[in-house]
């Protein structure tokens, strides 16, 4: 890894973590449910409607794949689909209370993993890393526009 540039290291890290299965979820279904709920949550943080197309773009899959994810999460009680408040022809997903609870648990797990990965880091180094990653994410969204 010594000879890799910072961009290569970043993408290596992303590939590594995107391939990891959720513990005790051999079929990957829970991971997919978290993924679609994370997408709905992320869209809401950016004040973007969580339509099937928006979720597909957020997750990086086609519309039919996103539709199947949404259907699974809805059947599991994590999402609800409803007509848009601004355009009744569109349907938008939102988290149910069970979906928010599941997402809260996933976020706690994410924080635990971060603590483990950064064991021995100072609080300042953790904050600097968080700020750097936040800046990268914000710029990546700006590049999409």
Task: Give the total of beta strands.
Answer: 2
Physical arrangement of strands within the biggest beta sheet: 1-2
For this structure, the quaternary state is: single chain
The count of helical stretches stands at 6
Main sheet attributes: strand count, strand direction, barrel closure? 2 strands, antiparallel
Q: What percentage of amino acids are in beta strands? A: 5-15%
Gyration radius (Cα, Å) is: 17 Å
* Helix and strand pattern: HHHHEEHH
> Low-confidence stretches at least 5 residues in length (pLDDT < 50)?
none
Shape: globular
**End-to-end separation:** 32 Å
The percent range for helix content is 55-70%
Mean of all residue-level pLDDT scores: 89
Structural class: mainly alpha
